[in-house]
Every structure is written in structure tokens, then in C-alpha cells.
Fold this sequence. Notes:
The complex is a heterodimer.
Chain A: H1 2-16, H2 19-36, H3 46-65, H4 95-107, H5 110-121, H6 126-133, H7 137-162
Helix pairs in contact in A: 1-2, 1-3, 2-3, 3-6, 4-7, 5-6, 5-7, 6-7
Chain B: H1 3-12, H2 23-32, H3 50-72, E1 80-86, E2 89-94, E3 110-112, H4 114-121, E4 135-139, E5 144-150, E6 165-171, E7 179-184, E8 189-194, E9 197-202, E10 206-209, E11 217-219, E12 222-227, E13 230-236, H5 240-247
Amino acid sequence: MRAHQDIAFRVACLACGSAADAEEAAQEGFVKAWRALPRFRPGAPFRPWLLAIVANEARNRRRAAGRRAGLELRAAEIAEREPPGPSPEAQVLTGARRDALLAALADLDERDREVLTCRYLLELSEEETAAALNCRRGTVKSRTSRALGRLRDRVGIEEVIAS
Amino acid sequence: MTDLERELLALGDEIAWPATPDLAGAVSARIAAEPRRPARRGLRLPQLHPRLATAVAAALVTILALGILFAASPGVRATVRDWLGIGSVRITRVERLPDLSPARGLGLGDRVTLATAERGIGTVATIRALGRPDAVYYDGTVPRRATLVYLERPGLPNGRAGVGALLDEIVGGDQLIFVEKLVAGHVPIKQVDVNGAHGYFIEGDHALQLPDELHPRLAGNTLVWERDAVTYRLETALGLRGALALARSVR
Lengths: 163, 251
């Protein structure tokens, strides 16, 4: 359970837009998954299934709360950040570029922002993203492609304005 | 991978996510505090049409009576002999049925409109031979399930579920056995063809176990088949021929 709690909580945050509701949703999702474990097919991927349950709980809470805005993404302060990881990507972003990307993401339609957040910021697979967003894998592919295009347009516009 | 995708991956390392609470601890405590699994939310009688509510209430009384009957029989425990799988349904042959405790509900999920159910699972097929369903339920947990309820009518008597016909449509069940059916040795299970799709017909009473339910409930004649990654479970009092006629009109 501990191995999955970070990703489950973050997916719940994304789906319901509130850390407090996300905590409840993730808890409820874990409990439901635990109850259903005896019927889980051996060999089937566990994480997409778990994330689907958690995300569904989170969406229900968001609907019940009548919340329209999703989670607002913000960058960690320098002191909060993890030390640079082993991947070269970890050191690619400058502060200005990071802020531009965050602003462009925030400006996207929520469905675009969700799919990009799942695929890149949370590094979910297509299958996990489909489970978290309650859509088909093919929809994740097409939505990701379109969302990247729109993000590219916006980042480009931001850069032109900035210059 | 494009530069933009690499940048997004790098951005992931810099997002200030809310601190993850100790979910494992909280969930462990909840599980430990649950000596018995709580019942899944039951059929919401106040939301039902009066005629439907009466029918379901009558069914629950029947199930209660049968549950007491089974519970009173010493040593009535399930001993698995064999099992068959079709879609999200596992049909398990047992020597005897397990104890069937008093039913708390039919575990149908929330009552919704057909359009809402379609938003949940995609296209919802209906039993064309019966027209529009009298009630539609949706359960958004995984696998997702829409349930269509048809009331008793001429040629469609009430079944064990307390209604004329109950059609479950289950999607996303590749990871989970959603429905477990325990069938005693004397009850026939027949292989059937539903418009080219392979299926099984359970002819007689058996135990139906749904997710989150602590105990199985009694179910009657049931036809199960799978088509286009959707598992269908049709429960009626009809025999094989009648059930097949309904199933073949599902689209």
C-alpha cells in the first residue's frame, strides 16, 4: 500500500482538486480495493485498477462538493525541491521556462491539462492514464497528442510575448 | 520524444504536490476496525417507483426467508469443484451452496437515467423485446456496471431478484472477477450461443456474490455472455428458450 500511496493521492488531488477530499477518496479507494482483492485476477496489472478506483472516488467527491476548478499546479520553492535526480531531464528547465510551462498548462482546457499531468508530470502509462481519467487508451493517445499541440502553441505565444 | 515532452517530464520533478498523508496507516486502521465488511449501499428504496419498490421489497422478504432456511442447515458450506469464466463473471461449481444470509439489497449502485449510464460505460444496450427499462442503475467502481430493471409483465414473471428481468452490463472487467456465481452440483449449466457470442445459462437457484457484499444473495435463472468486451448477465425467471429470446434482442 505504501508503494502506491503517493501516486494514488496525487491522482486523487488531480481528480477532485482538494487535498482534504483527495485524502478521503484515496483512503476509500484503498479500502474498496482491499475488499475486492480476492476477486482480482492473478497477473493483471494492479496499479491501473487501483488508480481507477481512487480517481472514481475523487470525482464523486468533487461532484458532491460542486467544485468546478481542478487542482492548481504550482512549482515547489527551491528549498523544497528534491536534489536533482539521475535523469538529464531533471536539469533541463530554467526557472523562466518552468514558469512559462506552468502558466501555459494552467491556460489549457481541463481535459488537456489532466491528460498531460497524468502522462508527464505523474509519469503514468497510457493504461494508467486511461484508468485514472475513465476513458479508453486510444482516447488518451489522441487527447495527449492534441493537448501537446495546444500547449506548444501556448508556450510559443508566451515566449513571443515575453520577448 | 520531443523537447516539449522532456520539459514536461522535468517539470514533474518540480511540482509542489500536497504532502501525501499516511494513507497506509489510516487504511490499515480502518480495515482492522472492520470485523465484518460493511454492506455495499443497497437498493435505494425511496428513489424507486412505488411498483418497483414493492416488487423489490417482496423479493427481499423471499431472500430473507431462503437465507434463514440455508443458514439453518448445518454444514452448508461451499466446496469448490470446478469453475468457468466468462468476461467478468466466474461460475464456480460447488458441492453445496454457502450460507445465504439475509439480503441487504441487490447492490445495484445509484439510480440514474439511461443517458447517465451511457456516459459511464459507453453504449448501454437494452432488451429490445421488452422496450425501455423501468429503471436504470449505475455503479462507477471498477469494473463499471449499468443495470437495467424490467418489471414483471405478462410473459415475464418475477424472478429471484424480485423483478421481471435484471440485465447487468459490465465493462472494464479485464482485471477483476466482478461477479462470482456459486452453483450447486445438481443445477445445470448449459453452453449457449447468443448471436454468435459464447455464453452460459444457469438453470436454477444459485448464489450470487457481488463486490463489497459480505454475503452472496440468492439468484435465479441467469444467462451470461460476453460481446465486444462487455459482459452481460441477464437474470429472469424464464427458462432457457425465453431467456435466449430476450438476450438475442439485446442491442
